[in-house]
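Much of our argument rests on the idea that a fold can be written as discrete symbols. The amino acid sequence and the backbone structure tokens for this protein are reproduced below:

___
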Amino acid sequence: MRFAMGIDYDGANYRGWQTQQEGVPSVQLALEQALSQIANHPINVHAAGRTDAGVHASGMIVHFDTDAIRGHRNWLLGVNRLLPSDIAVRWIHPVSDDFHARFKAVARRYRFVIFNSPLRSSMLAGKVTWHYHHLDVERMKLAAQYLVGVHDFTSFRAVGCQARNPVRDVHFLNVSQLGSLIILDIQADGFLYHMVRNIAGVLMAIGQGKAEPEWVRTILLARDRTQGGVTASGDGLYFVDALYPPEFDLPKEPIGPVWLQRIV
């Protein structure tokens, strides 16, 4: 049988989603070890995306195959019991064999959370990107609209990005403010390596008044990463959703992170 799962995790203690060399902690490794123990055979997990070191997820979708017969409650509670406290399975759902968490996803969505305050917060450490200079949200909103649509995002991907095609379709990029928190909410058909963090770095520079909103268009047309500004910290970045064709009928939860839902 093939199962899809929704998981969330705090990425602070991991070198990213993907399993790496022996002894390096990853979210994938922790999840596979827990599932393998419940299934009583080795389990390989495939995810909708690959988050970097320190990056979080509130709506990551994964799938795995198993011959083990277990009840829904056994899978859900058993795996959560074995996982470390900073990784949690939110739901599990049987899917057809043609479902694939990565290749069947038609869009992915991230949120980048900025704590805009002169003083840092210990309670939000690692969960947000702290920016102590005042940010003008209206300027950031204007700049964000230059990135919506189909563009070549060469200027917004890391030098080490291995994607063959730098063109992506950004469905929306919304900037909102809730007290001292500024939230960048972005959805696209796919993302390049460090793309969201590089976008966040540029928008924060514009919000701080270092450049005009039109600078985004100049950066896009340059197709040169050296023109793209500073890469923002991964602390405030969350993978919040992956979208699939309706025939898979996956469970849906409110867009996270959950602590931000509580504030809202």
Summary: The mean pLDDT is 94.
